[in-house]
# Entry
Amino acid sequence: MQKDTQVFDLINRELDRQRHGIELIASENFTSLQVMQAMGTVPTNKYAEGYPGKRYYGGCEIVDEIENLAIDRLKKVFNCSWANVQPHSGASANAAVFLAVMKPGEKFLGLDLSMGGHLTHGSPANFSGKTYHALHYGVTADGIVDYEQLEAKARAEKPKMIICGASAYSRDWDYQRIRAVADEIGAVVFADIAHPAGLIAKGLLNDPFDHCHIVSSTTHKTLRGPRGGIIMLRHDFENPWGYKDPKGNPRTMSQLLDLAVFPGSQGGPLEHVIAAKAVAFGEILEEGFTAYGQQVIANAQAMAKSLVNRGYNLISGGTDNHLMLIDLRNKNITGKKAQETLDKAHITLNKNAVPFDDKSPFVTSGIRVGVPAITTRGMKESHMETVVAFIDKVLMNADDEQLISGVKQEVKSFMQQFPLYPELG
Ligand SMILES: *Cc1c(COP(=O)(O)O)cnc(C)c1O
# Structure
């Protein structure tokens, strides 16, 4: 068979792009070569609907071992008693949590998308907002989660589920406070830790498992694994809503979640991706991943400081985790223009609404900056100043094509000290 050069040439161009650019998209990272190698393997050929030991197809004895290994390692990573590694993505994991807990039309409470929340936390454009009755809390003028508003809405509306977690929020969460009001009204607390999971795994942020009934995450952000989703419980529990099996026995939360992933919302699991998840969880269990997490936080602090020194306005004034949100209104440039201009200099990030933004979500007043990917490339605190200097130069000269093309060359040569997948030639 001839090699499909059309596709592989494109893949090689993408490798080149990743090597030369400064990757600041807060949700991105670079997996290890082993994680990628595991993904491109033969379990992709295997149908394995069901769960280890309870499959609908023959020949699953080895993929059973793969999936059990992934589950066992993940349980160690987060010190939890039950995990499902089959969700194809973070959104799929969240869809399963909704399906397990909620009936259509029932109320839940989540962080507003325009304040840092995620589409799956009740956006009208998403299944979560279309199928269920979404209520939202926001952040205060200081950019911190408005816990008082959360509590007031919870008491007034009595939602069945409260979601915490975000995609563009730079501060840690008070899970205990959310659990307290949830207990008052009999709601379950669902933490979506898609972004900071890798930092939580190493004890570098508050532990949501102490207080939240259900936890979901992606595997490809700070966890540095393959693209995918996971759902976890530290303690299983009998569902309080009277959901029963056909024999009339009450179902446990883990049973409801397993059923909601398959057959509820997915078909066959991606066992090659689950193999790669197992590799990634193995890497997280190693000592070195703690150093990685600590460096992520140190780099984020250094970058925040450097931005503030240059007059940039950070929402909430700083960061506790791997990302920060910059309000560009005092710099007279929109989020859209900033993203597009930085792209020309091979600095990749995304425009982002800031809390109380007066511009449309397509334009926005802000940008989101994250350091997990550049930390994986090997950058330390001292490099953050250089990166911020590049960003500032581009944003302050956004219409000077020649200067931006000069920065692009500087970025390319700067990135040569941080090799990416040298084994790939
Ligand atoms: C990224 C993210 C998701 C969705 O992950 P996908 O894999 O893109 O579907 C869900 N929730 C939050 C908070 C996220 O940041």
Notes: The longest helix spans residues 288-309. The mean pLDDT is 97. Residues 42 and 271 are 9 Å apart (CA to CA). The pocket of pyridoxal-5'-phosphate is lined by residues 27, 89-91, 94, 118, 120, 165-167, 192, 194-195, 218, 229 (CB under 6 Å).
